[in-house]
Amino acid sequence: MYSYLYASLSARVTINGVTGRMIADKSGVNVEHPHLPAYAKKSDIYFYPGKDGHATQAKLYGADKKMQLDFDWNHTHKNKDRNGTVTDIFQEGVIHVQEYVSIRYKDPKDKRWKDRFKRKSNNARLMTAAEIAKYGPIILKFNPNVKFRP
Burial letters for 22-31: b for 16+ Cβ neighbours within 10 Å, e otherwise? Predict the structure, then answer.
């Protein structure tokens, strides 16, 4: 399907029943990644590399292969209220999580149904204890330096 867009950088790894691998966008720009590579049916979470070869971001996909969560630690993230006042700061190296929803729409040009992924909010959160227990070990496999809490 979309495997021509991605290069696989690692073998699949399964920890705690979660399967993941590191991939890179062949364009060299790791952005939203709404389309999974053809081998997507074999992994739940995809990691994106930093300059040092360790993962700097991970995207979790559901059983329907639609993006659900974005675990990111490659930059400082600031939550802001309606007035633009900073309410929370997540330092680089500490995972902040953003949740996504998939919106199904019919493309007016080709009349085909498609998915668009949208953040539920621009505000991030820390990982929950359950997420750390389930996904933490595989995240640490791909980046042993990441932190779950400030």
Answer: bbbeeeeebe
Give the Cα-Cα-Cα angle 47, 40, 122 (nearest 5 degrees). Answer: 50
Q: What are phi and psi of 109, to 5 degrees?
A: -80, -50
What tokens does 3 get? 């495997």
Instruction: State pLDDT tens for residues 42-98.
Output: 678 999 998 899 999 999 987 777 778 999 999 999 999 999 999 999 999 999 999
DSSP per-residue letters across 39-104: GGGG-SEEEEE-TTSSEEEEEEE-TTS-EEEEEE-SS-EEEE-TTS-EEEEE-TTB-EEEEEEEEE
Please give the helix or strand (H or E) that residue 137 lies within, else none. Answer: helix 129-142
What's the pTM value of the predicted model, to 2 decimals? 0.81
**Alpha-carbon distances, residue 139 vs 35, 38, 79 (angstroms):** 21, 22, 23
Band of residue 40 on the pLDDT scale cut at 50, 70, 90? low
- Cα–Cα distances (Å) from 143 to 50, 52, 58, 61, 68, in that order, read 10, 10, 10, 19, 21
